[in-house]
Design a protein that fits this description.
Elements: H1 2-14, E1 25-32, E2 37-40, E3 43-47, H2 48-51, E4 56-58, E5 61-68, E6 75-81, E7 84-91
Parallel strand pairs: 1-7
Antiparallel strand pairs: 1-4, 2-3, 2-5, 5-6
Length: 97
C-alpha cells in the first residue's frame, strides 16, 4: 500500500512530461469608447471597461485582437503577447454620418 501511494505521488510530482508550465500572458485594454467589445482569436473576451481593470489571461504568443463598438470602425491588431501583462490603449475612429 505504501509503495502504491509513493508511486502515485511520484507521478504527480512529474506532472505531464515533467516540463514547467509556461508563464501566461495577460491582456489589458483601455479603449475609447470604453464599452468597446474585445475579441481575441475570434472569441469575445470582455468589454474594454472590464479589461481596463482586470487582465484577461491567455497563452503567451501571437494573437489576433479585434476591438469593435457600434458607430465606430473596428480595429484589428495582430501582436505577440509576451509572458506578463501587456496593455493596449486605443481610440476607435467614429463612422462619419
Amino acid at each position: 500500500m505504501v509503495r502504491a501511494i509513493a508511486f502515485v505521488l511520484g507521478l504527480a510530482a512529474l506532472g505531464c512530461g515533467g516540463e514547467p508550465r509556461p508563464t501566461p500572458a495577460g491582456l489589458e485594454v483601455v479603449a475609447d469608447p470604453e464599452d468597446a467589445r474585445v475579441y481575441v482569436d475570434g472569441r469575445f473576451v470582455a468589454s474594454a471597461r472590464v479589461l481596463a481593470h482586470r487582465a484577461h489571461r491567455l497563452p503567451a504568443g501571437v494573437h489576433q485582437i479585434t476591438i469593435t463598438a457600434p458607430g465606430y470602425f473596428p480595429h484589428d491588431i495582430e501582436t505577440e503577447l509576451p509572458p506578463g501583462v501587456s496593455k493596449i490603449e486605443i481610440s476607435l475612429r467614429p463612422v462619419p454620418p
